[in-house]
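Hello,

I think I submitted the zinc ion job twice by accident. Can you confirm which output corresponds to this input? Input:
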Amino acid sequence: MAFQFITVARKAQEIPEIKAAVANGDITVSVAKRITGVINPENQQDWLVKAKTLTQRSLELEVAKANPKEAVQEMIKPVSAERLEMKLGISHQLDQKLRRVRDLLGRKRNGSVRWEDAVEAMADLYLEKHDPVRRADRVLRKSAARETESVAKLDGEVEREAGDEIVVRKLDALAAEQVSRRVNSASAGSAAQVSERVPAESLHRVNLRDRGRCTHRDSAGERCGESRFTQIHHVVPRAVAGGHAPGDLRTLCGFHHGLVHETLGP
Ligand SMILES: [Zn+2]
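Support: Only one job matched these inputs. Its output is below.
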């Protein structure tokens, strides 16, 4: 239901009459959802009349005729505490691709695989390549491993010349210096010179810390958590020399980013 509202709300920005029709009670949210895939500013009057007058079944047929992709309504619904049912329409072309994936996976696992296994394998592969949170985790792990290595080398050298306490102090100073050098290298300078690009390491740290989700909390302390359409917000505006260090950045969704800037001014 929440998903339906979001889909309809997005479409309502493009075609305000949908919003009005739902608000007036002329059509239900689920009927509005039915026509979101076919309605546009040019044909909106036609579709609103159909939505108000046709039975659900006839409306579904009209929608499918206008846009075959809408013949099957995409849906994910829970069927038990642990499991969901997913329904979607696909093209013959996609059917061929999915069968190929399933066959290759079956060969690799040396047995038959379910569609679910094939979909999961594809999702993992996609996220591994494109999810900024996973990428951040991978990159930071690698750089931490490199640092441990270089610190271990230095550790050996320092130990030869001093006691434990001095070693620890030297290593702390070194680590702090390394981090501040990396994070500040692209953000140092006067306001006019502040780089527009957030340094990759800062971005990775923010993505990992916020898990790629909006960090806005409402007055009751509940976190928004939206993971689509997220942006990186500079807590101190760049125009007044705000930095790019992870502590100066937070993940916000487009809506809350806009809200924060409205409150703060541009
Ligand atoms: Zn948000």
